[in-house]
Fold:
Amino acid sequence: MQILLANDDGIHSPGLRAIQKELLTMGNVEIVAPAQEQSGVGHSVTYRSPLQVDESLVDGEHWGWAVHGSPADCVKLGILELSSQRPELIVSGINSGSNYGINVLYSGTVAAAIEGAFFGIPSIAISQSIDTPPDYEKTASRAVSIINRLLKDIPEPGLLWSINFPSSDVEIKGVRFASMCVARHTETVERRIDPRGKPYFWSSLNPLESYAMDQGTDIHAFAQGYVTVTPLKFDLTNYSILEKLKQVTWQCD
Structure:
């Protein structure tokens, strides 16, 4: 199996190194990752300037490709140019930090997986809570076990998944398939004053406590100590409203 591995934390991140070792048990792994950290960039792409790519070596051997662009750029280049053959699986991660709830919409990690799904390739984003020092090796082993099960049990092309692992000190209760929680009950921005008297702002860290704990959602399962697996899709059409509007004729006056 040809696997394309990306992330948003950068090509030298410990999470990427850990998952690369485990993915080698599944096939050939080509790394195409950002040269610098790209957390929170969402699905941004580079189109107003050239994309520079550097080969990354470890002990004189090819390690991967460092792209001076976004995670989505990395996957697109990986599929179209840098992988020796068309990838059969896209993996993004292991991200340093969770991507539950609406963080999915901001996440560069998830965006890399979405880009892979655009091409009809099964794509999986993996994220690890870092409330305590993470054990990326243990998470990588567990993640590959879940990936193998997903590919075996649901072998549909182009499926998109987001997997979130609780903190490494949490006794994991199991795996839960859960929906993406979109209900938040708090959102804050902290206002501060710099030494010259001008205001500046820090966005909130969006902790678990900011969300409604609705049963069946990733937030609820994650807070209980489960690994959450969420099937995602990138079609944002509101079909229920669209069907209603199809019965209406408007004129453009």
Remarks:
- The chain has a mean pLDDT of 93.
- The longest strand covers residues 89-96.
- The CA atoms of residues 66 and 81 lie 13 Å apart.
- The chain has one domain: 2-181+213-245.
